[in-house]
Write a structure and sequence with these properties.
10 strands; GNAT_dom; 2 domains; GNAT family N-acetyltransferase; Streptothricin_AcTrfase; alpha+beta
């Protein structure tokens, strides 16, 4: 197996060559040396922290502590009457703004080597492709008195229910919107026959981590995600 691969979508989207070193490949330094002059950006997901000397040599930075939460799908719970399936396509701007808001802790936002507009465009595409059901099976929203306050996108990964985007409007935080969306996501997963529900977030995203733990999720795995700018 090749120790690294070119990421076509990322390369086309960002306008420069992006590669990924395969998980578990031992000689990361050799891979980075090989890719110098070929790649502009290299992703590395590692089980542990990478040596500072390697980061210094190859202009690397810790971009994210990728944290996966899981929960066994449980029995029926009371659902909020303000939750509904989102069927408007293309998405309204209020929904796109929520999607962009969900990415404020994203590695594409916190790594200042990326242009701000590219991060926004990435999340705009994520919302639009979710609403069109290209990359999501369901999109649920929390809407009260015509006010769009929350968003959650749902799909499948590894035979389990999978949460993509979760966002709550800043003005509606602390009012139970996030918990209502998570309960609806679990109910959807149960109807689909999934036995587990999972969601990935950034370790630095304390509000999201707290929400998931409050909803009964536990940390299943952690990965250290690095960007090397060559």
């Amino acid at each position: 197996m090749t120790p690294y691969e070119r990421l076509s979508w990322d390369s086309d989207f960002f306008g420069f060559e992006v590669y990924r070193i395969q998980n578990g490949h031992a000689d990361v330094a050799q891979c980075l040396s090989d890719l110098k002059g070929r790649a502009r950006l290299v992703y590395l997901a590692a089980a542990g922290e990478t040596e500072a000397a390697l980061l210094d040599t190859y202009n690397g930075r810790l971009a994210d502590i990728k944290t996966t939460f899981e929960k066994d799908v449980e029995g029926p719970v009371a659902l909020s009457p303000f939750i509904s399936s989102y069927t408007t396509n293309p998405a309204e701007e209020a929904l796109i703004r929520l999607g962009i808001e969900s990415g404020v802790y994203s590695r594409f936002k916190v790594d200042d080597n990326f242009e701000e507009e590219k991060y926004k465009e990435l999340y705009r595409l994520w919302v639009m492709n979710s609403v069109s059901r290209k990359i999501a099976k369901e999109v649920l929203v929390y809407r009260q008195q015509e006010q769009l306050s929350g968003l959650i996108t749902l799909g499948e990964k590894g035979g389990n229910g999978d949460i993509g985007l979760v966002a709550v409007d800043p003005a509606s935080r602390g009012k139970g919107v996030g918990m209502a969306l998570m309960a609806a996501a679990e109910a959807w997963s149960r109807r689909q026959g999934y036995r587990q529900l999972q969601v990935v977030t950034q370790g630095a995203n304390t509000p999201a981590c707290n929400l998931y733990q409050k909803c009964g999720f536990h940390i299943a795995r952690i990965e250290y995600f690095y960007h090397f700018w060559l």
